[in-house]
Design a protein that fits this description.
The structure is a homodimer of 231-residue chains.
Chain A (H helix, E strand, L loop, with lengths): L6 E5 L4 H12 L3 E8 L6 H13 L2 E6 L37 H16 L3 E3 L15 H14 L1 H4 L5 E3 L7 H10 L24 H13 L11
Parallel strand pairs in A: 1-2, 1-4, 2-3, 4-5
Helix pairs in contact in A: 1-6, 6-7
């Protein structure tokens, strides 16, 4: 614990975006408290990545168990096929079956509870509204509304210590996120984005998330260090 | 399942207020889906009441486990003494140590997730801003902000099916709530409000919640059917 630093709770999924958000929170001078969720996701390999990232960064890390039934109805939690595409241009603007109902709302709520206990007034979330999968809870208007709500929900908020939800990636392209992370020394080999990885953790290369990630690395002009099934 | 009725998720703590909110949801014509939370509360006897209420009302009931560490720092979850008073006038306007960080925010978030899966656009919560314990997340402005956020967070919201958070008790006194519940046939012997009950479930009679409840029954002009330690 470093008494000279302000604390921040950082949502850490194990993916590329939240790993970058963690690095940004730390470079901005916060003492980070990372939080991950085990909710029956079929891509649980991301949690192993989250643990490694937290260990590498030497930050306190809390893993919260959420009964998978709470998030039923999504291809990420249920026995519903994850859509695969040949190219990123095939993605549509519709909300896809990989949408997990109210996931970021639930995750942020646990982060707000932990922030209250820690005396933290800052929460970081790696949502991104450009190269994303079309989920409603990744948009700037959602983040703004969540912050307004959280300031009415908490003792921190009502006592004048404004709680802030930081979404530093929200207006960046995937390529910009990767460039930012590379500049901050993020090890992207320790991040997993795939919605449907092989048992050994290799990425499928064809789900929405893989396609957006691969396009991002291509546009950033560097190789993706993550292993893919077709490598 | 009744296809002719609109579905509503009802947060059911096992206490007096939420039992009344459940009865109101049903009399308003909703098919209710009750949701309770096991979060390490020392007054877990309320969950037995919630189960009995759901059974009596023949509604589907989901019990969600939340890791107690998520709500640490409260007298309701930790080894902190629950304050006792001789009279209700001794309660102050300060947020008391029985405040559980972001509890209603977390509970509502699970309710929103379930509503998305059920195709429900209505959520009932028995919060009450008059005879209450001074928690920030029981005020009308919190409920309004939560509803605004939820409509940006969900597919239901973005597709034009406005999600509504109903707080039918928010402007009622405890006595008014009890009168309403009596008119609807709520069995208050099956409700537990005490923050620090005896192992056999009897209420302490001196915590904030007991004092507000006893005052409510007195003002409503009827006896509280719940057993108290001093009875």
């Amino acid at each position: 614990m470093d008494e000279t630093k302000k604390r921040a709770v950082v949502l850490l999924s194990g993916g590329l975006d939240s790993a970058t958000a963690l690095a940004i929170a730390r470079i901005e001078g916060y003492e980070a408290y990372a939080m991950s969720f085990r909710y029956g996701q079929r891509h649980a390999v991301e949690l192993e990545c989250a643990v490694r990232q937290a260990t590498t960064s030497a930050v306190e890390h809390r893993m919260v168990d959420i009964d998978p039934v709470s998030f039923s109805g999504s291809a990420l939690t249920d026995d519903i096929a994850v859509p695969k595409h040949g190219h990123v241009d095939e993605l549509t603007d519709d909300v896809p079956v990989t949408y997990v109902p109210a996931r970021n709302t639930v995750f942020l709520s646990f982060a707000v509870a932990w922030a209250e206990v820690l005396g933290a007034h800052d929460i970081f979330i790696g949502v991104n509204a450009l190269d994303y999968s079309g989920y409603p809870d990744c948009r700037p208007e959602f983040i703004e509304a969540y912050e307004a709500m959280a300031n009415l929900a908490t003792v921190a908020g009502v006592s004048g210590n404004r709680l802030r939800i930081h979404a530093p990636l929200i207006k960046l392209t995937k390529a910009e996120i990767i460039k930012r992370g590379n500049a901050l020394g993020v090890d992207y080999s320790q991040t997993s984005s795939c919605y449907d990885p092989a048992p050994d953790g290799r990425a499928c290369g064809h789900c929405d998330s893989c396609l957006l990630r691969l396009k991002g690395f291509e546009e950033a002009g560097c190789a993706d260090p993550r292993k893919y099934i077709e490598d």
